[in-house]
Amino acid sequence: MAELSPQENNIQENDFAYQQIIHLLNSKNINYKLTTHKPTKTSQESAEVRGATIASGAKAMLIKESKNQIFCLLVMSAAKKLSWKLAKQIINSKKCGMASEIDVYEITKCLPGAVPPFGSIFKIQTYMDNSLIQQGDIINFNCGLRTKSIQMQIQDYLKVENSQICDFTEE
């Protein structure tokens, strides 16, 4: 039987992640720019409404390790593609895949496309690809809602999110 999408289950956007991120950044005195915009679902749409490069987008992908049913968050430049071969090595798994839309909502309380690059607020490990550091000093990301984005310094992100930095993307 096919799994119903969040919309088919009448799941609405929830501001849990947004509130957690704002609290985290404010409590650590981190400078950031918050922007409200039309809803976006893709990295390309988000870059366009932000007036930013797609490379500066911090794309967060919720991954499910199949054997132990463990989730982790892979964060990379939105201009890159995930290398499943490298991702499996990083998370030490022979089989893993994208979390389902229902899993995304159950773990993050976010709709797909709104997941922020902060696995810590969901109590899951965050892995960040070097591509995000290499693209420049500024990152942009949806912060739990499809209608709100944050822009901040990559070094400030690294101060507040305990990401394991590694390589898991390809061109």
From TrEMBL:
One of its GO terms (molecular function) is aminoacyl-tRNA deacylase activity. Gene3D superfamilies: YbaK/aminoacyl-tRNA synthetase-associated domain. Pfam families: tRNA_edit. Residues 37-159 form the YbaK/aminoacyl-tRNA synthetase-associated domain. Keywords: Aminoacyl-tRNA synthetase, Ligase. It comes from the Eukaryota. This is YbaK/aminoacyl-tRNA synthetase-associated domain.
